[in-house]
Recover the amino acids of this structure.
């Protein structure tokens, strides 16, 4: 009996100390997490992770580009992130003749590093809870006047914190606007490409393996942040110098053991942990299936043309990856939500919520309207949400020539009000946009998208969202032969003619451009969408937001004895867990790591996703692993029970001693519902083992000089 009891305690104990749901606020670790982190093995203090007074780990972590994380790995501004995060930059330096996607790229000296206009690295200077200042003077206000006051306060806080342009300052809501934090960033604009492995390493497994375990993708690339002579952010200039960061991560060669403490620091984008059951139902039964269906068509068309034409293969590589990524995640999400019976769990929680607010009259008065309001709002939302996604996926994202049509001014009114200097600016900006557009454009592919996607729009959407006049217009585009004619006639399909028009752009040519059949069709669809779908959709969403804020406030009160974490909102978070495998289904046990051996097992010269560069095969057969092996194996990737999401790509995986041991790049398929509901049994994040990164840099690429720059440590 006693033994059993002891066993029970140990089992419960170890469960609570392994998988760990949550993306935590770095400044609140001391209050909420550090004790648990240390029990799980962490040897540093909360102050070592985030400090206002001294350099801390947070000073090594950056926002890379628009949606990824990166980290400093040398005192010379060397930045590590994922291959898929640097992908569009690597692609932009590539052509059929000089194909860095296929061959990889390694600068052998700083002179050879490649600048990337538009790419930034943002260092967080500080984050502060500014809730009091944001809410100041708002009590008693409601609706628009409340929003106006909040906006006024937020603008003032941001303006003051920016210190005349020194920082980018952003105030962001947490817990659906029940709390606000200010974030200030130093934004570096000169970020150069240093190295990227060939796709056959950096994207090994491609979209087949994406979101899957066991995984063998060497998903990393290396950049360098440059600063002016005073070590400050500056626009690209040849005499800029490598940035000397406040903090960079030492790299451990000691490897990873099961149950090791593991921490991610990074910028998770979006999660929705506090949705009501109605919302989960809508996502699972309508928005995900609809978007999956549309994108399946898009991806099939991409594949066909990419396989037939090497130029299209490069042009559409990034588009394909982007389109397929969410497509596959949505599928995993449906499966995971079903498996967890997420809707039922949410309903059970809602029942608890009702019991909770019934305990006294004030609570009841405040919170009893919440669930019925949700119910009504989601019923209202449902048809509009369908139309919204169809228009978004087809008209605004799918058919490419519509994007081009959208570049141009709709009428000459605005144009006639501008002076000639402005006209010149607009012409220049348009010329650049159009050039970039055609760089990655294939007309054959797009024509097919045009036919198939518009057919889908006509067939699937309720006629209340496609009025008679639009239907008539669309019916003119049904026939594939006709489309060819339309494309042939449209100036949008003729880059030279279009650039000519732009260079002579005036009020008259704007009016004429609007008569182009494709522009006309696009404007009709867009106009209808904006007037009849978007406005209503947004209106309902706004109302949902108001109810969600109240619901969140209630949940925070109800759960006040538990730590709650705010949904991800692309601000710096700390997440932690343990290195551990999992059982994806009955009878299958996943080990926590993979090796180079597995790369060779997957190798298939016939399959594009499973190519292995000859040099890597050679290193493997020769057993030439340097100091990067462990018991004769080269580790490649590993998993841990850490709660992560999109935006965490490129996040450093940090061990108990605060050293870099891995690079986050994905999640496992079975756990992709963690954006909505986390399951400690099934949710695992996927990281590269840092030793594989070093092995590729040193042994494969022969860029060992980069390793000399890093701080390698071993206990
Ligand atoms: N699934 C990872 C993430 O969400 C990797 C995506 C890039 N790779 C790809 N094959 N599409 O971003
Ligand atoms: N690959 C994702 C990203 O780009 C990370 C995977 C995830 O969603 O967890 O951020």
């Amino acid at each position: 009996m006693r033994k059993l009891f002891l066993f029970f305690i140990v089992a419960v104990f170890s469960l609570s100390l392994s998988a760990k749901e949550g993306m935590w606020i770095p400044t609140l670790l001391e209050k909420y997490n550090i004790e648990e982190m240390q029990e799980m093995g962490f040897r540093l203090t909360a102050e070592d992770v985030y400090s206002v007074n001294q350099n801390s780990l947070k000073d090594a972590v950056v926002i890379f580009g628009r949606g990824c994380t990166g980290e400093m790995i040398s005192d010379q501004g060397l930045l590590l992130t994922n291959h898929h995060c640097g992908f569009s930059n690597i692609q932009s330096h590539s052509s059929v003749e000089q194909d860095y996607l296929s061959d990889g790229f390694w600068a052998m000296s700083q002179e050879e590093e490649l600048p990337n206009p538009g790419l930034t690295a943002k260092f967080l200077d500080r984050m502060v809870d500014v809730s009091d200042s944001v809410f100041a003077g708002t009590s008693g206000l409601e609706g628009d006047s409340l929003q106006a006051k909040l906006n006024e306060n937020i603008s003032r806080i941001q303006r003051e914190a920016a210190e005349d342009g020194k920082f980018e300052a952003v105030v962001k809501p947490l817990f659906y606007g029940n709390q606000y934090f200010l974030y200030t960033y130093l934004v570096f604009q000169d970020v150069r490409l240093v190295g990227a492995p060939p796709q056959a390493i950096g994207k090994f497994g491609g979209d087949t393996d994406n979101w899957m375990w066991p995984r063998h993708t060497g998903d990393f690339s290396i950049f360098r942040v440059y600063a002016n002579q005073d070590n400050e952010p500056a626009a690209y200039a040849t005499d800029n110098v490598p940035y000397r960061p406040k903090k960079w991560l030492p790299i451990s060669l000691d490897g990873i053991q099961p149950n090791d403490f593991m921490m991610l620091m990074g910028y998770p984008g979006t999660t929705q942990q506090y949705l009501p059951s109605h919302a989960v139902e809508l996502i699972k039964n309508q928005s995900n299936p609809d978007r999956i269906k549309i994108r399946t068509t898009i991806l099939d068309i991409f594949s066909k043309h990419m396989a037939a034409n090497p130029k299209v293969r490069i042009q559409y590589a990034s588009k394909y990856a982007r389109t397929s990524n969410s497509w596959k995640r949505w599928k995993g999400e449906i499966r995971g939500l079903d498996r967890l019976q997420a809707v039922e769990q949410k309903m059970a929680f809602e029942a608890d919520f009702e019991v909770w607010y019934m305990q006294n009259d004030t609570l009841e008065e405040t919170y009893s309207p919440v669930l019925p309001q949700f119910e009504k709002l989601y019923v209202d939302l449902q048809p509009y949400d369908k139309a919204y996604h169809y228009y978004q996926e087809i008209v605004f994202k799918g058919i490419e020539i519509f994007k081009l049509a959208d570049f141009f001014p709709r009428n000459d009114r605005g144009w006639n009000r501008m002076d000639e200097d402005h006209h010149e600016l607009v012409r220049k900006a348009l010329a650049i946009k159009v050039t970039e557009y055609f760089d990655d454009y294939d007309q054959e592919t797009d024509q097919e998208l045009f036919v198939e996607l518009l057919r889908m729009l006509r067939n699937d959407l309720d006629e209340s969202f496609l009025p008679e006049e639009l239907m008539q217009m669309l019916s003119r585009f049904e026939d594939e032969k006709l489309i060819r004619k339309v494309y042939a006639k449209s100036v949008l399909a003729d880059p030279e003619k279009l650039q000519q028009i732009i260079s002579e752009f005036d009020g008259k040519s704007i009016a004429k451009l609007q008569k182009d059949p494709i522009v006309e069709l696009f404007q009709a669809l867009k106009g209808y969408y904006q007037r009849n779908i978007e406005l209503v959709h947004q209106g309902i969403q706004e109302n949902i937001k108001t109810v969600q804020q109240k619901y969140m406030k209630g949940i925070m009160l109800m759960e006040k004895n538990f730590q709650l974490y705010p949904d991800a909102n692309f601000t710096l978070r700390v997440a932690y867990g343990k290195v551990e495998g999992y059982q994806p289904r009955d009878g299958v046990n996943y080990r926590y790591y993979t090796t180079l051996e597995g790369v060779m097992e997957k190798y298939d010269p016939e399959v594009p996703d499973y190519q292995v560069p000859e040099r890597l095969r050679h290193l493997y057969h020769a057993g030439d692993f340097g100091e990067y092996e462990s018991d004769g194996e080269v580790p490649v990737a590993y998993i841990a029970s850490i709660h992560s999401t999109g935006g965490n790509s490129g996040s450093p995986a940090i061990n108990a001693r605060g050293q870099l041991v891995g690079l986050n790049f994905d999640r496992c398929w079975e756990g992709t519902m963690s954006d909505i509901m986390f399951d400690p049994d099934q949710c695992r994040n996927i990281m590269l083992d840092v030793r594989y990164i070093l092995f590729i840099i040193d042994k494969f690429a022969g860029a060992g000089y980069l390793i000399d720059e890093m701080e390698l440590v071993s206990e």
